[in-house]
Amino acid sequence: MYELKVLTRFAAAHQLKMVTEKCENLHGHNWKVEFCVAGKELTSGVLVDFGIVKKQLNEIIDSLDHRYLNELPAFSDANPSSEQIAKYIAEEFERRNGSDGAYRVSRVAVWESDDACATYIPQR
Ligand SMILES: [Zn+2]
Question: What is the pTM of this model?
Answer without folding.
Answer: 0.94
